[in-house]
Structure formats: structure tokens, C-alpha cells
Design goal:
Structural class: alpha/beta
Distance between the termini: 48 Å
Bound molecules: magnesium ion, zinc ion
Number of strands: 21
CATH superfamily of the largest domain: Spore Coat Polysaccharide Biosynthesis Protein SpsA, Chain A
CATH topology of the largest domain: Spore Coat Polysaccharide Biosynthesis Protein SpsA, Chain A
Radius of gyration: 24 Å
Length: about 450
């Protein structure tokens, strides 16, 4: 039973879901007006899925001639097939068994993945014709499906945090939940409309309905009993057979993500996917209170001469640089909106910051700043995670593996909203101490702390 308990206009939803002990916000689009539903579903009634089912049977004709000799899932990135990266993530996220639904060049897939022991999971297979459509492949494998499973297309890698998805699924009370990439950057074409309550109201794979916003990328949690009766005897795509029908019944929940996915769907994607899997080590830093002395409340560093470095901060930047890490800065600078400085003033401050970092052997690769006031409702001012997602897209980061260091509660909230691990910088735990720990350094004259 679903009960609508309230409607919050334009507010950040921070209601705790039943069973959500850490207070993580519900995974609804938080930048829209939201209807909040609380459900009576007891999360202990469900056990989380441990089976992932991957549709990997297509010919991948968009990637010809690469796919003339190789199924697209086996295209290598940094020494590992694309789908190998996916299976690694599934294992890290608690999946024990993987079912591969194969067709085109199934032998090459089975040769590579075998029984899964090289990946630390149990892998099984169902092989049908290369030209079968995906609804048919799932239907054919019905006897191998768990009561509840995770369904993926083999050509999308999205750094999932399954605990969060699972919590959203349980809280929704729905039998099916898809993952939707927000696509605010026009990375691809939209295919859905998600309502205020987080449920899909339009699913249009043809992508022609006006007002579409967001694209379905699989990473779907599905109840077998709800899905199987929708699979037709004719050849059809799974998403066309299942998702519009569930949408019409109000039973398709969406897990909303602003984190870009990476794909082997077409040639134009391959360089981005290559950059993503390089996993170049990156640290994201707040500015005031991390690199330089934080000005008193409602005051700002408005001129270069007002910038005062914190002890050890330049040494930390030099250490990151020596270790080959990329350094990004994300900073709220509402002094611009309040008329205390111009964008030129801020640029001059940042020229000094970057110049002195370089003089000390460090390097700041990019500074993201929010010039807006607290009342402007922008997406970039922390605790909103907009700057972190911008950095994600610009540098093809995996935010779930990229640490953000800040000195303020709002930094921690932004990190949590973006799925970033967070470290708090304090006087007793300054940037240099974080850097030494992250880089595995023990500076001379410092006492190494055990553990
Ligand atoms: Mg700060
Ligand atoms: Zn802003």
C-alpha cells in the first residue's frame, strides 16, 4: 500500500525511509517539486538480489568492423574487456552470481568468462540465436532467474552503489525499478518522464514524446513474477515489452542519477570510455579552510593579497603532483553574487593560488566555483552536488572512487549527494595529513600512526 504523506515544494527531501539508518535521502529527483510517499513495506520481507542478469547477445553492428571479430562486450579497455569491468563492479557490490544471456559469438564470451572463478563470481549462460530480441532471451532463461534480480544491458557501465538503489527500490514498494541518467548535458536522447514521486510516467524508447527528460540505462531491479507475464511470444525488445506496461500501471520506479554512464554503444563513445577506465587518480578539494585560511563568516577572499595559505597545503599539492594525481577544486564564492568582488577579482585570486601552488611544485588542474547566492537555487552551490557532477563529466571520473576533502558540513553533504567518499579537513587533520595517508607517505619527522 502506498500512502502519500506530504508534498514539499522545491525542498531537499531528507525524510528517512523505514529501515534507512544512516539518513540518506531518498533517491528521487531533488531539484523538482516532490511528492513524498512512505510505504508500509517491511524491508526485511525482501532479501537483496545476489543475481545479475546481463543481456549480451546482440551483434553490435553499430561498432562494425570492431564487432566483426569480437562481441562488443569483449572490446578491451586498459587490458580488460568492457564487460569484465562490469563483472568486477558487480562482485564489489555484493553480487555472487551472473547469468549471461548470449547469442552473437557466444563461444568467445564463454571462453573468456568461463565459470567466473577468475572474476570471483559464479557465471552461467543461456545461449539463443544471435538475432533474437531481448524479451525473448529473458523469457527463454526464465527457469534460471532468481525471484528478484538485477538486469543490465552489456554495453553500459555505470558506477552503481547498490545499497542506495536497493533502499530506493524497497521504499518505493514497486516491483520494478530502472536507473535513469538525468542527461541534463544532452549526452544522449531522453527516453522517459519521471514524475514528482519518482515513478515513471512516460516510457518512450522511440524518444519522440514531448517533455522527455532522462534516459533509461538498465541497472534495473526486477521482480520476476511481475516481469514474466509481460514477455510476449513474439520477438520484441525487453524494454518495449515490459516498461511501458509497468508504467501504465504506475509500477515502474526510477532511480535517478546525474553520474554519467560509459558505453560501448557506438564508436563515438569509445574514447570517453577509454578515459573513464584509465581511472586517473584524482582528488577533489574545497578551497577556503582546506588550501587557504577560511575568511570569517560573510567575508571573502576578494583580492589576491588577501589569500593566506594554510600550513602544509602547498606541500600537499606538491605531493599529489609528484604522485601523478589530478587536483580539482570546488568552491562556493557567493561574494560575487553579493557584489563584494567581480569575476575578474576572483580570477586574480585563483591566478595567485595556482601560481603559488606551481612555484611550490604543485598543480591545480581546474577550479570550479559557484558565484551564486544562497537564495538563487542554483545546482552548483554546495551542499548541492552540481560542481562534483560537472567535474565528473569534464574529467570522466568515477565519483564513487574519487575522494572529496572539505572543511564544512556542506562539503560532506555535497559529497554524499554525489556518492563521493568524503574526508573532513580540520586543524588537527589538515590537508597534508590526508594527502600523506592517501598517498601512503610518511613524512620524515612525523610519527606514523598505526593503522
Ligand atoms: Mg571551506
Ligand atoms: Zn551556483
Amino acid at each position: 500500500m502506498r500512502v502519500v504523506v506530504g508534498r514539499l515544494a522545491g525542498a531537499q527531501i531528507q525524510l528517512r525511509a523505514p529501515g534507512a539508518k544512516d539518513g540518506t535521502a531518498l533517491a528521487a529527483p531533488t531539484n523538482k517539486n516532490c511528492t513524498v510517499k512512505l510505504f508500509t513495506v517491511d524491508p526485511t520481507m525482501h532479501s537483496r538480489p545476489t543475481q545479475a542478469v546481463i543481456l549480451a547477445g546482440g551483434r553490435g553492428t553499430r561498432l562494425a568492423p570492431l564487432t566483426d571479430t569480437l562481441p562488443k562486450a569483449l572490446i578491451p579497455f586498459h587490458g580488460k574487456p568492457f564487460l569484465g569491468h562490469v563483472v568486477d563492479m558487480l562482485r564489489e557490490q555484493g553480487f555472487e552470481r551472473v547469468l549471461l544471456l548470449l547469442g552473437y559469438m557466444a563461444d568467445a564470451m564463454i571462453d573468456h568468462f568461463g565459470d567466473g572463478s577468475a572474476y570471483g563470481v559464479e557465471i552461467s549462460y543461456r545461449v539463443t540465436d544471435a538475432d533474437d530480441l531481448t524479451a525473448y532471451r529473458v523469457k527463454e532463461a526464465a527457469d534460471q532467474l532468481d525471484e528478484r534480480f538485477l538486469l543490465l544491458y552489456c554495453d553500459n557501465y555505470w558506477p552503481m552503489q547498490f545499497d542506495r538503489m536497493w533502499r530506493a527500490y524497497v521504499d518505493s514498494g514497486a516491483p520494478a525499478q530502472i536507473t535513469v541518467y538525468a542527461n541534463a548535458d544532452g549526452y544522449t536522447r531522453d527516453s522517459v518522464i519521471v514524475g514528482e514521486d519518482g515513478f515513471v510516467t512516460v516510457f518512450d524508447r522511440g524518444r519522440t514524446t514531448p517533455g522527455l527528460s532522462g534516459v533509461e540505462i538498465s541497472y534495473a531491479i526486477l521482480d520476476k513474477a511481475a516481469v514474466l507475464p509481460l514477455l510476449p511470444d513474439r520477438q520484441e525488445l525487453f524494454e518495449e515489452a515490459v516498461y511501458p506496461a509497468l508504467t501504465a500501471r504506475g509500477e515502474l520506479h526510477a532511480y535517478w542519477s546525474e553520474h554519467r554512464y560509459y558505453s560501448v554503444g557506438g564508436h563515438e563513445r569509445l574514447p570517453l570510455t577509454e578515459a573513464f577506465f584509465a581511472r586517473s587518480p584524482t582528488i577533489i578539494l574545497d578551497r577556503d579552510g582546506v588550501l587557504n585560511v577560511r575568511p570569517p563568516r560573510a567575508e571573502y577572499v576578494c583580492r589576491p593579497e588577501e589569500l593566506r595559505w594554510l600550513p602544509g597545503a602547498r606541500e600537499a599539492l606538491a605531493a599529489f603532483n609528484r604522485a601523478g594525481w589530478r587536483v580539482l577544486v570546488v568552491s562556493n564564492q557567493p561574494g560575487v553574487a553579493r557584489g563584494r568582488m567581480t569575476l575578474d577579482d576572483l580570477a586574480a585570486v585563483h591566478r595567485r593560488l595556482c601560481g603559488e601552488a606551481e612555484a611550490a611544485g604543485g598543480r591545480i588542474d581546474r577550479i570550479y566555483f559557484c558565484p551564486h547566492g544562497w537564495d538563487e537555487g542554483c545546482a552548483c552551490r554546495k551542499p548541492a552536488p552540481g560542481m562534483l557532477f560537472q567535474a565528473q563529466r569534464d574529467h570522466h571520473l568515477d565519483l564513487t572512487r574519487t575522494k572529496f576533502l572539505g572543511d564544512d558540513e556542506r562539503d560532506g553533504q555535497a559529497a554524499d549527494a554525489a556518492g563521493c567518499p568524503f574526508g573532513l579537513v580540520t586543524e588537527s587533520e589538515p590537508l597534508l595529513a590526508h594527502a600523506e595517508r592517501l598517498l601512503g607517505l610518511h613524512a620524515a619527522g612525523r610519527t606514523a600512526v598505526a593503522g
